[in-house]
Amino acid sequence: MTYDKNSGDDHRPNLPPSSGEQLAALRILDANFNRVSEGLRVVEEYCRFALEDRHLAQNAKEIRHDIGHLAAGISPETLAKARETLRDVGTGVTLGSEKTRAGILDVVIASTKRVEQSLRAIEEYAKLGYPQLSAAAKQLRYRAYTLARAMLLTDHHRQQMAKRLLYVLIDGRASDAEFASLVRMLVEARVDVLQLRDKRLTDRQLLEKAQLLKSLVEQFAPAGAEETAERPLLVMNDRPDLALLARLDGVHVGQDELPVDAVRKIVGPEMLVGVSTHSIEQARQAVLDGASYIGCGPVFPSNTKQFGSFVGTEFLAQVAAEIQLPAFAIGGITLENLPQVTAAGFSRVAVSAAVSSAADPATAARLLKTELLAAAARQA
Ligand SMILES: Cc1ncc(COP(=O)(O)OP(=O)(O)O)c(N)n1
Ligand SMILES: Cc1nc(C(=O)O)sc1CCOP(=O)(O)O
Ligand SMILES: [Mg+2]
């Protein structure tokens, strides 16, 4: 497709095609198309080789290709003419800070900024005669921003969850004493994440239970556990408001509940936001939405929740092959079927009944954790 000069709703007078201004604008567009493509290549390589995230690498590649299509909208002859006419005085101008980078993340952050700035330059200068191109550049700038955010968050959340393999969903039990006893056992068994999920409780009861959970974990975790990651992270199911009020570490939402950006408006930028996913498309979207981790299921029939269909281990294998955001397999997982889950490339699971309904929850949790650690070591 080629762009109609001055088509659309741009009301300013047309610039004469041979004017110096228009040639300068074309020269700027040309230079910035190149900068965006180069910057996206740096981003793509980071996603591919450093993050090893095929999904994000593919996303970077798609944006790069779409930039190519945009650039192709201006005829090569027009661009060539602009190139010859104007000398680029910017070549060779390098800021001291561009010569060295502290680390690989610095490199990629600098590139993402350049990509966004260059897309902004295209968006602005394309207004001089190429309004459709300007609008398309704006869309690409949003996509580049989403990619950059997802990439940096994936890295951050991967580090945050690095050693967190066993995630247990608990209900409020029949009494606070029973709840406290279960929480104590699970903290001592080194469960990595605890989710409060109880659909029977009123809002007020849920808040009180979440506050109790928080104080129990502070009481039972070893001293200094906050820093050493030796206490479980605490997650509230469904309810960002209650997670915030009880000062838990995160909230988990399903596909029909609030989307991540809405949850973030409630809980802020720091809190973990987990998202349930039931297909590879939903998993990919959760990465771009900035989820902190995903739940992938239901893998097997569950005694905790009824489902009409199951994703099986095929979905797990798809996620393991392309997504680096921490992912927990969920749904009917037990010590017996765990080998099928780990064989699909997962070393993180979220379970309810296998631990919460076990005769000895502490032993059940320990056995699962041992297997997950072994799987993680094999997969490393
Ligand atoms: C870790 C984890 N994964 C998935 C779910 C399920 O969430 P959702 O689909 O919203 O269903 P409910 O739990 O609300 O019934 C989860 N809770 N935790
Ligand atoms: C609450 C829930 N959500 C799932 C999903 O796939 O989204 S599976 C599930 C139940 C998890 O409990 P159990 O380990 O007892 O099967
Ligand atoms: Mg839910």
TrEMBL record:
Pathway assignment reads: Cofactor biosynthesis; thiamine diphosphate biosynthesis; thiamine phosphate from 4-amino-2-methyl-5-diphosphomethylpyrimidine and 4-methyl-5-(2-phosphoethyl)-thiazole: step 1/1
Where on this chain does 4-amino-2-methyl-5-(diphosphooxymethyl)pyrimidine bind?
A: 195-199, 237, 276, 305
Alphabetically, the GO molecular function entries are: magnesium ion binding; thiamine-phosphate diphosphorylase activity
- State its cofactor: Mg(2+)
* Gene Ontology biological process terms, A to Z: thiamine biosynthetic process; thiamine diphosphate biosynthetic process
Question: Which stretches are transmembrane?
Answer: none
Thiamine phosphate synthase/TenI domain residues are 166-355
Residues bound to Mg(2+): 238, 257
Q: What is this protein called?
A: Thiamine-phosphate synthase
